[in-house]
Amino acid sequence: MSPTGPTPPRAELPHQHGAWSILAAAFLLGLGAAPGPVPGRVWALLAAILAGFIGRELLSRHLRQAARTGPAAARRLTLLAVCGAVILLACSWLMLRHRLIWLAAFGAIEAACVLILGGFERRRRHLSLEAELVGTAGLSLVTLITAYAKTGALSADAVGLWATSALFFCASVFHVRYIVRRRIERAGPLSARLRAGAVSVLYHAVAAGVIAGMGLAGLLPPLAGVAWVPVLGKALLTALRRDTGRLVMRRIGLTELAHTTLFVLLTIVAWRAA
After folding, report:
1. Residue burial 99-128, b: 16+ Cβ < 10 Å; e: rest
2. Residue ranges covered by each domain of the chain
3. What pTM does this model have?
4. Which residues of 54-66 are buried (b: 16+ CB within 10 A; e: fewer)?
5. Residues 189-207: tens digit of each pLDDT
């Protein structure tokens, strides 16, 4: 109970704007890059995706609570049961009516991610790099699931789309952690900035190289690497630029949102043009 009364249901929704943006971007990537018209079954999938996302946050909060009893905990568990019912009904209909049998495997992977994240929660390591990467990997799978539900087939193009999206979303984890956690080094000399940002820059460079190489080998659309040019440039410029200003999380979030939007648009164009 809060001092002014019961906590409203909307307070139980996930507050991480970064996670919401990844979820939306992953869904739009799968929806926009996969060929063909958008069938009605995709919206049933969206309901299951949102229920899973909200349910994961409810479980996370429940595990973080010192006392897991009382009206707030009971309400959280009730909402968690509702989310579970939505997932079960939507996925059962998609599998039985539309023969999307791979949803069972995808659901098992997402459940494994939730269990792993639960382990991080219990050890108070939910803000660690490993936890963020697991959470991001789970969210990025929405790209593949959406493309699969839209086309009704698990294709190599959809798997490639998921691979490039997963690499991109994980790149944001390294980038934001560098900005937020290495503030002293970012205000220092160039050598200190390069050492502090080496992991982020290296990850971006390797990921961009892998995508470009797969494009040249014909495993991805030829233009797939174009979407990584702004991403790699962002990482390099951030490491090179000396920043002594105040850390403004809203500005960081909006910048990442802009880069994510650009990546989604360029990737959709690349897949559509293939």
Report:
1. ebeebeebbeebeebbebbbebbeeeebee
2. 1-152, 155-274
3. 0.88
4. bbbbbbbbbeeee
5. 888 888 888 999 999 999 9
